[in-house]
Amino acid sequence: MIQVMGRLEKQSRNERCTSPAERMMAITPETGRFYNILLRAMGASSVLEIGLSHGYSTIWFADGIQDVPGSRITTLERDSSKCSIAGANLREAGVDGMVNIRQGDAADTLDGLEGPFDFVFIDADKENAIGYFEACLPLVRRNGIIAADNTLDMREMRPYIEHVRRREGVRTVTLHVGWGQELTARL
Ligand SMILES: C[S@@+](CC[C@H](N)C(=O)[O-])C[C@H]1O[C@@H](n2cnc3c(N)ncnc32)[C@H](O)[C@@H]1O
């Protein structure tokens, strides 16, 4: 696992040389460690991720929950080549058996998913983040968490922050971790 994480981190640092379609656009290592610790503290066993890319964040999540028997990650990605690359990375990290990759547009692949999830991570097309949040909220257990990346570096996430701050039935906080994380607990 350490080897594949190191390779992906190096690739992430050199992304300016990569074509936009091939970019990982991954969370930072600090963000990965943060969610890994959070998932361990929660005793989480079920994770839903929207935006798999090459599987970097997924491996951090898998490492955080794998000690809990029956732990599972469902992850959504529309790009088929990224699904193949992520599948290979997850295999190399030894966590492919606990990850279910659903390829397609998240608007479709979210349909029919059954909760409850302990933790949801929203990290795909920013313009649909509010829609993903509303679709996921009923799938999250009480006191479970919906988190979103890029809340400090991307203007497109501003409406999302305003939405969750106004939303009834949740408690939310913006954290200066990585590119900015919005953590929202379902009350
Ligand atoms: C920021 S990257 C995810 C990075 C990943 N979470 C990590 O940190 O390693 C966003 C990913 O979401 C995918 N994506 C964008 N819009 C999508 C959609 N509507 N449905 C499914 N996946 C989508 C992109 O192809 C891209 O791989």
From TrEMBL:
Q: What is any one GO biological process for this UniProt entry?
A: methylation
PROSITE patterns given in the database record: SAM_OMT_I
- Record InterPro entries: Cation-dep_OMT, SAM-dependent_MTases_sf, SAM_O-MeTrfase
Q: Report the leader peptide range.
A: none
What is the main EC category here? transferase
> Which Pfam family is one of those matched by this entry?
Methyltransf_3
According to its UniProt record, the EC number is: 2.1.1.-
Alphabetical UniProt keywords: Methyltransferase, S-adenosyl-L-methionine, Transferase
Gene Ontology molecular function, alphabetical:
O-methyltransferase activity; S-adenosylmethionine-dependent methyltransferase activity
Q: What is this protein called?
A: O-methyltransferase
